[in-house]
Amino acid sequence: VSLSVVLLQGQHAALAIAAVVIIVGVPLWWRTTETYRAWLPVTQINELAKLQLQLSVDVEVVFARGTLTPEQQKKVPLTQTQDEEHMVDEDTALRYRYETRYRTATIMEEDALNQPTAAEADLSLHTLSESPCGSVVVYVIPEASSLLPEVVEVYIGQRRTAMLRIGAQMRVGRTLKQLLAHLEPRIQQVLQVMSFSHSDITAALSDRVRPSPGNKESLADSMRAFKSSPGYEITFSLLNPDPKSHRLHWDIESAVQNYIQPLLTKLAPVANFSIDSQILYYAMLGVNPRYDSSLSAYTLSADSLAHVINPVEARLGSNAASSNPVLNFLLYVPDAHHSPLYIHDHKKQKVHSNAFHSPRWGGIMVYNVNDFYGPDPVFPMDINISMAKVMGVFLAQLRLLLGVQSSATPPGFVVASCGSAGLADWELDRLMWSRTVENVATATTTITSLAQLLDQIGNIVINDNIAQQVSSTVTSLQLAVAELEAGNLGFALQYSKEAILASERAFFDPSLLHLLYFPDDQKFAIYIPLFLPMCVPILLSLLKMLSEARQRRKEKQAKRD
Amino acid sequence: MPRDKAGQFFGSGHTNNWAVTCTSQFWFNYRHVANTLSVYRSVKRLGIPDSHIVLMLADDMACNHRNPKPATVFSHKNMELNVYGDDVEVDYRGYEVTVENFLRVLTGRLPPSTPRSKRLLSDDRSNILIYLTGHGGNGFLKFQDSEEISNVELADAFEQMWQKRRYNELLFIIDTCQGASMYERFYSPNLMALASSQVGEDSLSHQPDLAIGVHLMDRYTFYLLEFLEDIHPASTTNMNDLFKVCPKSQCVSTPGHRTDLFLRDPGSVLITDFFGSVRKVEITMETINLTSPVEQVEDK
């Protein structure tokens, strides 16, 4: 076989190898080493990054007999829509839409308003109709009405109604428009108390918008309540440091059933709650109380309260199974040598409730039992703790810690007590508004930062389940925003909860950790020893072929010439 | 008057504290475990409960069969202080201390079966203290003698914590050789960092104990422990004093710190804001009268 044939075969072989490497090898290597990244709805996520929320409130203003002149009455029923726009920051815009329907009272409502007191009127009004979640009904009653005492202008009931006294000079000769304009500011005040105020909503947006270091009061409020979470654990603990003197009995099960459970059942749309209780013996407070001879009692000053919690917390324990936030409520019965024990506030005054609470942690109440000692105490004494008094304090603390804000009411307002459930309907609505906004804000931040993270780090594997969670978050968020616009608070909260659950599951998926950091020099260090020895002969033979081809062309040209 | 007090109480903006500590392996690294345990001890003494501390120890020194004094870990050759104590709660031990687990704890990406004690359940109002010690180099810290965590990974992990609002303020202390390189890459807000040595310098150990046979502690942490022993839960010492701990004359290396990402002035930050757990407390003014369904009693 001649040399040229061998050479030709050699060239063909090199070309074939090069072809296989380039056409088959490189794509194969590329496909098998690429990280699996499922598709994410990035455009929709970017749309959600610019959050534009519209909160729609349905308001009904009912004029009782004696508040409208006949000519004003002709123009009613009337519907008005009012928009309030706020630009919180460049990415977040808020619009509050109040759709107000003005009408006159029906005969049955007039009957209900004929009760002697506002509380009874409130009760009978509710037997007539049930207002949907998120709406507010304001009854305008005549100036001379005896329902409200003299100085009171507005009464806020236990459900979703309020009673507003019309001003005296507003009846004669004014048009409906002027009357409505006059009522406007006070109806606004009612809505700020019963639905939401701008500061409530901006506080709820704190995940998206770092709150400006302004109002100390609102900062304290936002730090006190727990953040929105799908569930909470509540633990009631009885601390008995002196079992030799006191044998304590507390009927915690029935107390929880009667006093706490109604509140938690009413809060079911907002979160799940699990309750447990325990008794701790020989658990001391960790702070030495000072004896005050003027009161012949022991006192704990307000400054020392901060150091009470830590030594006790080490002994409290918690449910290892869930990661939900825990609210601790401690009932401390002082030992016989340090009874009675009173808590003093900053003004050195005795605190009526004898209790204090810590933001985002829980509350502690000191229960003195020295009143139970007879003239001739025999230790150990059997003591039955009065659970109604204790639960009254714990319930109030629970309301504060969950964010059921009883915000400062404007002057002239009277707020009815919260009823047997421990929570008025409008308070629940307030909580639902702020929770929904908070959930939507948190979910959008989570999903946007996740999208950014996955975009920046090209190496992270995005599994199908993550992509599915992200898609479901986006859908739930869009639905939540739509329901807020439509004014369906219950559904909006529902969808916002789903959005948060899905977004947290996506963000905190354990699989998103691998290949977090894969520097380029390490990549080269891995590939070079594999590919270089293989590529060098192929490249060299290709180069050789090229130079031979060029030489042949030169020879051919030389021949021609 | 009460309102001023409220302002003072809520000045720091945090409601709970967390601490995460970590270390490296082998008997001759006794001093790293002693370092970590002394910080753990100080933090517990100042009030942070075990439920809020994630303690990672890569090796068991107290029960190591080379330890002539079992069940103890000493910080000083006079054996005055047994930093192991009798209520140590180690959350990650031995081979569980890996870079992956450390990053999972920080970012929260743990499998659902992880118990509460192994999680960092912080929120946007938590102040977190992270103390790392071991062998390190320019831009990395060695874990378990087989893997490393780089400063870029750490900075990214902190950024993810910030994105998810998992901390209010974070204090990062590192006691390794060339420790300052580990905080060079931070870029998230509200981070303050301290290191025992600059890039190019080695952190040195304090003193050997002839009975136990190894060096007991590192210099920087030894003087840090001495400093912290003087702090009690109500003290008002601030961060500027912490920066002065272990000057070059005592430490041989130059400790460094970084505060440019921190929003508050270090002089206004109390040591107990990070090392202790001073709870904010409010008097309960309202109660609900449950026996008769009429009034809500309010004393203002």
UniProtKB/TrEMBL annotation, chain A:
Keyword Lipid biosynthesis set for record: no
Cellular component GO terms held in the UniProt record: GPI-anchor transamidase complex
Keywords, in A-Z order: Endoplasmic reticulum, Glycoprotein, GPI-anchor biosynthesis, Membrane, Transmembrane, Transmembrane helix
Pathway the protein acts in: Glycolipid biosynthesis; glycosylphosphatidylinositol-anchor biosynthesis
InterPro entries for the chain: PtdIno-glycan_biosynth_class_S (IPR019540)
Stretches that traverse the bilayer: 12-30, 524-546
Subcellular location: Endoplasmic reticulum membrane
Membrane topology: Multi-pass membrane protein
Pfam families: PIG-S
Example GO biological process: attachment of GPI anchor to protein
Record carries keyword Endoplasmic reticulum: yes
Family: Belongs to the PIGS family.
Name the UniProt record assigns to this protein: Phosphatidylinositol glycan anchor biosynthesis, class S
Automatic annotation (TrEMBL), chain B:
Pathway(s) this gene product operates in, as recorded in its UniProt entry: Glycolipid biosynthesis; glycosylphosphatidylinositol-anchor biosynthesis
Record keyword DNA-binding present: no
A Pfam family matched in the record: Peptidase_C13
GO cellular component, one term: GPI-anchor transamidase complex
GO biological process, one term: attachment of GPI anchor to protein
Keywords: GPI-anchor biosynthesis, Signal
Domain of life, per lineage: Eukaryota
Keyword Protein transport annotated: no
GO molecular function: GPI-anchor transamidase activity
Catalytic residues (UniProt): 135, 177
Subunit structure: Heteropentamer. Part of the GPI-anchor transamidase complex, consisting of PIGK, PIGT, PIGS, PIGU and GAA1. Interacts with GPAA1. Interacts with PIGT; this interaction, via a disulfide link, stabilizes the expression of GAA1 and PIGK and links them to PIGS.
Family membership: Belongs to the peptidase C13 family.
UniProt protein name: GPI-anchor transamidase
Gene source species: Myripristis murdjan
